[in-house]
Amino acid sequence: MHIEEMIDAMRALGHEVKVVAPLVNQGAGRMGGGVDWVHRLKAMLPKAVYELMELAYSVVAYRNLMAAAHDFKPDVIYERYNLFLLAGLMAKRSLGVPLLLEVNAPLVFERSQHSGGLALTSLARWAEGRAWQGADAVLPVTVVLAGYVRAYGVPPERIHVIPNGINRAHFANAPSTAKAKAALGLQGRVVLGFTGFVRDWHGVDRIVDWMGSPGAPKNTHLLVVGDGPVRAELEAQARHLGLAERVTFTGVIHRDRVPAQVAAFDIALQPAVTPYASPLKLMEYLVLGKAVIAPATPNLQEVLCDGVNALLFDETQAGSLEDALSRLCSDGALRERLAQGATDTIDRLELTWLGNARKVLRLMGVSA
Fold first, then answer.
1. pTM for this predicted structure
2. Domain 2-165+352-363, second-level architecture
3. % of the chain surpassing 70 pLDDT
């Protein structure tokens, strides 16, 4: 979504964008479309072999970039960072044009922590350092993530934090909360909402447990806009607690349907967060004016302020999330105040894709 929205925003501002990407993803029609064979290959090969193949793919990507540049003659290369991918850096040097590198995660750290880790850690660190140090501008999505970039020795003047944003037009026709609830048959409920691909670390199970506790209002309803690997576990948990009728999963839905679903939320949930991320779901919550509950982590506090546009809890303190839920469910005036603060945040911090595109263009010395 990030890269697609940036492309659309740059074009809307009058600039030409040539997209160079793996052919399996072009026109696939769904996120990650056409790459199931890659996941199967990764599972079959020794990790070290697969990682060497990732690095070798830079040569393929470089040739594709240079072929595209032959006719397009770009003024700048804008790349979404991926581990072991050095094609943009190679093309920048051959073409003599600036490279702007969008960074959404410190992938050496992230991959070391998940999926069994990395086999060639030293090579991965070298590749990440080369990519970040060689870019004319590195664009991390949070100040926290910028710290990872600085640790590689990238000069501060080449690091520019640009959080994720929102496309206002995509949410302009969202229904009112009352109409959205009516369409879903949730009238009279306090709707707790979560969007995205639900994993165990998201902490949605804590929401279900709280709903089953004696102190939770009986008119709460959990609406999960999305799907995920823990859906069956959460549904089983809800049945065990006698909450089966109070928990709804939409399953995977088209992006165009998301605003009408999120519009039904009274309280928007961010129970946990990766410490360096700029969550896309948070921007959706804010633009639709939802009362947000989130942990008081440094990356989220770059956007959220307790009592102004969110109710923040201390994730290190047992019961803090549950106390925040009880407080917000019982205080309609607080929900309204936070909802207004959420809406104001988008304009105050210019958290739109058009705003992000303007910032990027200014870095290039180009008028937006």
1. 0.91
2. 3-Layer(aba) Sandwich (3.40)
3. 96
